[in-house]
Amino acid sequence: MATVYDPSKHYEIKVWDVEFRRDPVRTLMARIYQPQGNGPFPALLDLHGGAWNNQDRTANAPMDESLAASGLLVVAIDLRRAPEAPYPASVQDANYGVRWLKAKAREWNGDPATVGALGSSSGGHEIELCAMRPHDPRYNAHPLPEAPNVDATLPYVVARSPVSDPFARYQQAERRQWAEMIQNSKTYFNPWETIYEGNPQLILERREPVTLPPLYVLQGELDDNVLPAVQEKFAATYRAAGGECELEIFKDCEHRWVANPGPQTDRAYERIKAFIARQLGARRLAA
Fold this sequence. Notes:
- The structure is a single chain.
- The chain is an alpha/beta fold.
- It has a single domain, classed as Rossmann fold.
- 36% of the residues lie in helices and 20% in strands.
- The protein contains 9 helices and 8 strands.
- Strands 1-2-4-3-5-6-7-8 form an 8-stranded mixed β-sheet, with helices on both faces.
- Helix 2 (89-104) packs across helix 3 and helix 4 (166-176) runs antiparallel to helix 5.
C-alpha cells in the first residue's frame, strides 16, 4: 500500500547520484531525492530546462528538495543536449526516464504506479511531448531490457514556463534579436522542419491522436521568453482537445522566477504539491 501523499508533512531527505543511461558521448546521471520514512512514496521525474542546449539534473535542486521533503521520491535526470544530439534525442531520454523510474522506483522506496513528471522551460516542452505521445516509436528508441513491458504513460504532468510552442518562442527570440536563443533553436531543431513536427501546440492543432493527462502549467506574468499569451493559447487548445489543463499566471514573475527564493517561488512549490496531491487522490479513489 502506497503512502497517502500529504504535502503538509515534512521528511528528512537523502540525496545521491546514480548512472541513468550510458551514451556514446557521455554518461547521463540521475539525482535521487528520497524521503526518509516508511513509504512507499509517490514518485516524480524531473526534467531540467536550458533551451535544449545546456543545464543538467541539478538545475531544479531547490524545488526538487522541497518536493521530496513533502513526501515525494523525486528523480532528476540528465538529458542529452542539442550540440551532442538534436531533436528528438532529449525526448527519447525523457521517455526512457519515465520507464526507467517506473522500473527502479521500488528500489528507492517509491511507488511505480504513481510516477508523474515535472518539466521546466525546454524540459516542459520535452515532457509535454512525452505525455502526449507516450508510445511514439520516435521517442521509444531506447530499450529497457529489465522491464520491456513498462510504458511511458503518465498520470499527470507539471510544466513550469514550458516551451509549448517552440516556433512561437523562436519568433519571439527574433523579435528580441536574441542571437543565442535563435541559435539554440536552430541547433536543437535540425533539420529545421522538426520545429513543426515536435511542437505540442501544432500537434493539437493538427488533431493528431494524443494522450492528454491532467496538466498544470505555471507561467510568469512578465516572461519575455515564453509569452503568457502563447501559454494561454496552448492551455485553451489542450482543453478543447479534451484534456484537463490548469494554467496559473504568477504576477510580477519572469521566466525562471523559481530559481530565486521569495514568496512567489514558495507559492509555486506549494501549488505544485497541491496539484500532485489532487491527482494522486483522484487516482486512489479511481483504484
